[in-house]
Predict the 3D structure of the following.
Amino acid sequence: MVYLSVGKEKFKYPIPWLIVVIGFVYGLNWSLYTMTSINLACNYLWPMFGFVIVMAMWYDVRDDTNHKYGLIASLGMMLVSFIAGWSHEAYSLGLSGAFVLYYIFNRKEFRGAQAWIAIGYCLGALIMFLAPGNFQRLSRDGSKSIIFWILEFALALPRLKLVYVFLAILIYFKIKKKEYVRIFWKRYRILVYAWVFSLIFVCFMHTVSQSFTGIELMSLLLILSILRPVFKGKHTIICVCLMALVCIHVGFISANQFKQSETEKEAIKRYIHSEDGLAVNYTTECQNPFIAHWLRHPVDNFRRYPLTERLYANNPHPLILITPQDEQILKYPQKYFNEAYKFGSGPFYAIDGCSKVWTPVDSVLLKESYQWHFDKPKFYEQMSMRDRVLSIFNPGAVPKTMPTANPEIINTRYGDFMIIDIPTQRKIVGLSVKEDSVAFSK
């Protein structure tokens, strides 16, 4: 990113590197989790790496007007571009649209190896777009009105950060340093095209999606590019000190993440030797506000892990992951199965920190239907687009209840129990029999 934005002559300057590190750590949603998770890195970071490689090749070919590339070299660049285009729609659709737009307005510049690079990338993006899953999404969302897409886009905007930083710098330079904007536009307009198409693509995402990584990383790339004339080989000591502070902060975050991962691994080890599939997960949610934001939530609210069960297939019992609070209820049912610990007005019991609600096995209770009761809706909770809008303008119209999953019977070393997993999308304050309209408190 630094090489593509500032070029060879400023590649060793410390300020661009500092901006990249700060942008990655503090600008991206789920930044450290994205960098440490193989799944998220493959989904979002590797496609960005391919995007940067393609643009670096494209600019090298464009700038080196005296060199003519042979057929083998051109086909090689086309292959690399094809692989990069066949990656993630947040990047591929944006850059493919940029190549088409650039060709329309700058056809004379679009020749030789540049054309091979663009064709390869667009072909890769086309194959990715033709994947069956994309058509399923289109058929599912195609009937939604234009008002829906506008609201979805509006709800996504508050989650963006680096986009606004880039726009603020662009507006400032447009007013104070117009020559910087002219230099920037002349060299990097294809990146601006890609950025615009990617920003439009935000309309088609869920507002809690990590897919914002694409538009945010493009914004970081454009921030470096527009600041290119400003960068000087000075302030090395200041940059080193700031980089050290960031590294120390990341070190504390990484230590907590390692501790969290080790605790989760211990829970899986307990499952290997579990006689009934129960495994206590002692992972606790970090309460430090300077660290918790960068950690993923503990997995104590998820009960079944099919992959884990396959890996440890010698245990015939399905994995049932519980919290220490759940374990307390299992060990001392006579203490907790009373009115003081009833979860709402229904016949289930729980204490703070439980991942499930519990009750003794009763065939009559199995025939009943139950519903969760929500606390006041919050904009940042996982809700439908309609409910998210209503949570801002008319909270009373947001549904206050939701049907529960069917109760399950589990056989444990402590006895037989009926359980229902507590959902985590919104804050739950209680449970009741579906026909029960009596007010309750947790």
About this structure: The first strand starts at residue 278 and ends at 280.
